Fold this sequence. Notes:
By secondary structure, the chain is an alpha+beta fold. Among the domains are: 48-76 and 419-687, Rossmann fold, CATH 3.40.50; 86-226, Prolyl oligopeptidase, N-terminal domain (Methylamine Dehydrogenase, Chain H), CATH 2.130.10. The chain has an 8-stranded mixed sheet, with helices on both faces. Strands 7, 8, 9, 10 and 11 form a 5-stranded antiparallel sheet that branches. A 4-stranded antiparallel sheet has the order 3-4-5-6. The longest helix has 18 residues, at 670-687.
Amino acid sequence: xxxxxxSKKPEKKTCHNVDWEDNYxxxxxxxILEVLKDSQKLDPEVxxxxxxxxxFTEFHMSDTKKIQKDLFKEIKGRIKLxxxxxxxxDHTYEYWTKTTVEGNYSIKLRKKIGTNxxxxxxxxxxxxxxxxxxxxxxxxxxxxxxxxxxxxxxxxKGSEYYTIYIREISSNKQVTEKIExxxxxxxxxxxxxxxxxxxxxxxxxxxxxxxxxIGESIKNDELIFEEKxxxxxxxxxxxxxxxxxxxxxxxxxxxxxxxxxxNEEKPKPxxxxxxxxxxxxxxxxxxxxxxxxxxxxxxxxxxxxxxxxSNQNWKTYLPPKEEVLIGGLTFLKNWILRGExxxxxxxxxxxxxxxxxxxxxxxxxxxxIDPGISLKQRDRNTDYIHLNYSSPKTxxxxxxxxxxxxxxxxxxxxxxxxxxxxxxxxVERLECASHDGRMxxxxxxxxxxxxxxxxxxxxxxxxxxxxxxxxxxxxSTKLSLINRDIIWVTSHIRGGxxxxxxxxxxxxxxxxxxxxxxxxxxxxxxxxxxYTSKNKIIGMGGSAGGLLMGAVVNQEPSLFLxxxxxxxxxxxxxTNLDHSLPLTVxxxxxxxxxxxxxxxxxxxxxxxxxxxxxxMDYPNILITTSxxxxxxxxxxxxxxxxxxxxxxxxxxxxLLKTEMNAGHGGKSGRxxxxxxxxFDYAFALKIAKKN
Length: 691
């Protein structure tokens, strides 16, 4: 089949006295935000190219049709399709969700406490059918405090422009106008007369909080708060004691918070602490005290306490620990729970308020786990919580845990209908030295029959941005590769916070290359220890993890058999220079400001995947993207693919697959998500010659 060719329309670019040429910059749509809302506004020439690439990919993946179907059936077979969540007790009702064999979306159910009459208050599949839409993204689903109204938000393109609807549960009728162009979040006032929501501006940035009176015209909506900085995004939440609403405004590196009383008739948010660059804080209230989770004078966070926000006489409640990331607090009447992460492993602690004694909660004898807690009811006068954990080999388990007696009872276990035996798998936590001596953790999962003699293929997953930690939880989908003799390794590289705030700082801005070096070091270590061999590794990452994939494949292509990159941030210099794009300004503290700061420009230019493609052999590469993605615009992977075709000197596969009706998260619905995973895995098995 003929290789797709994107027309070259050279454009001379210059910045900080540096000149370069871009043959494909023309495909960026000047009206991109309009295109995100309406794909019909896409340039016909660009659309034709994307469709040609899709046909090319379809042709070269045609021999994987059977394995795609097998994988789909296999992955779906590990999911209990007719499942129900554990109930959550509200004031007078308990609520839960269920899924069905036929459906792709969840159903929300409730029953009055003390009765057996079950009401269906939301059915995603029925809602989708009524609207007649291909893409159906559900943002928020909230019930009002009086249990009479349901608030929900929908995105019908994948572009993350959410429309809010408020419905009376008893009549199933809309009780207010739909509210368009929001972030999707819905917060009811305690008296159920209002909702609070955040509106997106012309650049798809949430910088305004509005209050809408239910039943009245949206023209009368009150502006409660407006953030002036284009780099900051706003959100609103209710305090744990339900006495205050908190407005949080932040970029990735700095935050500021305002508050007003939950019963305030005319909200006038008051500032808690003025923003300081690099200082993150979040205040909550409970039992007459305010708790501040902050990194001020505490790199890996601490928690301060005070009894009055007017004088703010803060005292240390929980001091910082070096390279231990301290999480926020969960409050019960007699208990305070918290989490922390160190060396890419989480722990949960509980404190008895009466005795002031804090203890770690023990989940299991397994060392590498992903622990968590959740409340089982709204009333916090209880000694019971839900305790949950999973591991790379053990499916999710939920226990009813008595904080007083420390007794736990298994109340739900993730069912694998097709069968699963955790003893068939081996999980290891290892670490290796990076280029500068820093030790990088990795989590290795393999089948017990897979030999460690260099013969196995290995999938090496990485992300390493925004301080996001990669937790070692269970994923039934990964078993489809692990059971086929492919070792799965998650690299806990810098740019995340697996080893605290410093781990993040050492992987961003002018330290960004540490992220790439860490990943390469892990790959070489795995080869050295014979988990795999050179040219048997398949790299995988998405979004900022796609930036990682693009950088390392330019740097060390011979290490890899293949690369799978989803919605990849690969034209990072061009995007960083364009301050009108939705995310650019808010990410200056993560990647830098190339337009205004020369050293940032030089540094980003030195690693940006699109700008550093070379004349050389590349491994097999699969790139996936979505037309309505507002986070990583489709033109980035499209340009990257076109330029790679110009430069690569090999005959390996280079495939670009664009979802024409989806956003950053890919296809909507359960089956859509499974189809995408099956496609990616089929590519991995094809290049590993295991299909």
